[in-house]
Amino acid sequence: MAAVYKTLSGSSEKPNTLNGTTVKKNKQRVLILSSRGVTYRQRHLLNDLHVLLPHSRKDVKLDTKTKLYQLNELADMYNCNNILFFEARKGKDLYIWMSKAPNGPTLKFHCQNQVDRDREKTVHTTSELHFPGNCLRGSRPILSFDATFDTAPHLALIKELLRHIFGVPKGARRSKPFIDHVMGFTVADGKVWVRCFEIRETATPKSEARSQRDNERNDSEAATVVIPGDKERGETKISLVEIGPRFVLTPIMVQESSFGGPIIYENKEYVSPNQVRAELRLAKAGRYARRSERDTERTTKKGGLGLTTAVRDATRNELDDAEIFR
User: Fold this and answer.
1) CB–CB of 156/187 below 8 Å?
2) Are residues 53 and 168 in contact, defined by beta-carbon separation less than 8 angstroms?
3) 197/184 Cα distance (integer angstroms)
4) Residue 261 exposed, middle or buried by CB count within 10 Å (0-12, 13-18, 19+)
């Protein structure tokens, strides 16, 4: 009832104390769930993303794979305006749906990893990578997008929806007021590469910093001015250490509504993994057919040269003992 009273009594806009303008509060909540048939690695990826997103809510598995419009009702029930749905197919393929509930749009991706494409390992989870990086649970990330996202309309739409889902709002319920990791989104080869890094600050000792500054003074030709009373202070080095998980998203299509409506974009270069596996099976069958044809030609050639044993005539003679005394 408190939420209903707050909604009916006033809006979410509050005045800014600096210039008196109204600032709309960023309210983003993400519903994360999967379908039946996910593997352990896909389930671990879902758990890793749930840990990285403190403004997300994890739900049980969805029983259906055809009536995806039911996800809008679940999002409305849990007061979420973003949906991240993991759809597993044949225990091998993973498709990720990102939707802005309840009006859309909806993005469909094929999740994979180009490094382990031949071994059918689709993603790399945080636990199996053993990276030395780490971040505070519930901290807010810095989202880094490649400049390629601004070159095409569908990439700009993908960037906006990724910003809504992976961008933790300020003041979220389970978030902490710290920023200690970066999530990078890069477009390469028509795919979106996702990486997560820790922002690590390393303090340099004063003696080391003094020696580095002395070396810089000796190497530089210009004269430096030393301010009297200036204290020697250590420097802070900032580096990025990967945390995980890492995965690659291949755009498939964009729907106008939330899990429905007309398709406003379709990737013509996308090849289904079922078609790839079918072509591999056809290639193996073609090798067997060529080998059988070579054996047949070899047998025919030997028969024409008289190198094979003559085949006994299968016709029966009426004067044979077997025919007479039968």
Assistant:
1) no
2) yes
3) 8
4) middle
3-state secondary structure of 44: helix
Q: Which residues contact 243 (CB under 8 A, 6 or more apart)?
A: 126, 131, 133, 134, 135, 181, 196, 197, 198
What's the number of CA atoms in the CB half-sphere (13 Å) around residue 106?
23
Phi then psi dihedrals of residue 19, to 5 deg: -120, 5
The more confidently predicted of residues 319 and 108 is 108
Q: What is the pTM of this model?
A: 0.71
Tokens encoding 303: 């028969």
In 3D space, the residue among 143, 57, 65 whose CA is nearest the CA of residue 97 turns out to be 65
Specify whether the CB–CB gap between 49 and 245 falls below 8 A. yes
The CA distance from 290 to 201, in Å, is 62
User: Token match 């597993």: residue?
Assistant: 88
Task: Tell me which DSSP letter residue 206 carries.
Answer: H
Q: What is the pLDDT of residue 112?
A: 85
Q: Where are the alpha helices (DSSP H) in the chain?
A: 2-9, 40-52, 70-77, 126-129, 153-166, 206-219, 273-304, 321-324
* 3-state class (DSSP) for residue 191: strand
